[in-house]
Amino acid sequence: MKILVLSFLFLFVIVSKGQTTEDEPVTNLPSSLTGISISGHAYPVSAFGDVHKFFMVQYGITSGIQLELQGFYDTYILSERSRSSLLGKFYLNEKLYLLSGLEVEVATEKKRTVGSAISSWFCGRYWL
Does residue 29 carry a pLDDT above 80? Predict the structure, then answer.
């Protein structure tokens, strides 16, 4: 019985001490980024051969000024699309910023082969 009471007291002290300690707040706000940050994602190829990819490169010049480069690449049954944008952000405070930049989008048509004509036919279209 004495061991049970001591083990309960020991666990109570550990749990109470663990709950009272607090970690320092982490500043993961976008306005606090200085240096470079790279992220991206690609979805698996679908049954129809569609491909979707995305990347983003952020560079914090100062704690209030950022440059951002984004890129998107999508392929569909009959077309390919590529889009890139370059943005500049000037943070006025943690939740408000001014934005300026440019974006370019290019769309090309895929060459039709027998396989794409058959897959288009299954999608409700017929190509000669």
Answer: no
